[in-house]
């Protein structure tokens, strides 16, 4: 059902998680210990990278574990139009591709994505161009409220941040957010073309 939500674009529908989800078996093993033939690659599902998500996702304080993606724009939701995502956690995951984001890969130009009460932790974000703990990149707007990330590992991305890689929409804003333990990143965002931030911390 989670796959169907992302793959179809959802057309302004509302979704709510009822349980934690394990996309790969990381309950007792590190995702790096899984062999290639043991990994379920999120981006290899048909059509998942061709749709822009346009809807509402309430994580209901649940966690998606073991998200793995190895190409293109790698994220739980690779492409986003107008969306609201709340109370969702991503953990013990590994993403690599052109752009990588724990929750959102790329925001469409002129669109706004709102994330509230979301987090990404114990995750590797190995994007080539942009990598962000929650959002990788976009020409649209992102609004983060009460979101955080910790224990993230980044590769050699051009733009990388504990919360956001590169977002250029001038109506974007961050409030009550923090990132901690992101290596080798020294800040919450790499490129953010608005000064609309309040209570944003990096450790």
Structure summary:
With 203 residues, this protein is mainly β. 3% of the residues lie in helices and 54% in strands. The mean pLDDT is 86.
List the topology elements:
Blueprint: H1 2-8, E1 14-16, E2 21-22, E3 56-65, E4 68-69, E5 73-74, E6 77-80, E7 83-101, E8 104-107, E9 112-116, E10 119-132, E11 135-138, E12 141-145, E13 148-154, E14 159-161, E15 164-167, E16 173-183, E17 189-192, E18 197-202
Parallel strand pairs: 1-3, 2-3, 3-7, 4-7, 5-7, 6-8, 7-9, 7-10, 8-11, 9-12, 10-13, 10-14, 11-15, 12-16, 13-16, 15-17, 16-18
Which radius of gyration do the C-alpha atoms yield?
15 Å
Helix and strand run: HEEEEEEEEEEEEEEEEEE
Average of pLDDT: 86
What are the segments in which pLDDT stays under 50 over at least 5 consecutive residues?
A: none
Oligomeric assembly: single chain
Structural class: mainly beta
Q: How does the major sheet shape up? A: 6 strands, parallel, barrel
Strands, total number: 18
Query: Number of helix segments?
Result: 1
Strands in their spatial order, largest beta sheet: 7-9-12-16-13-10
Query: First CA to last CA: what distance?
Result: 36 Å
* Amount of helix: under 10%
Beta-strand proportion? over 45%
Q: Categorize the overall geometry.
A: globular
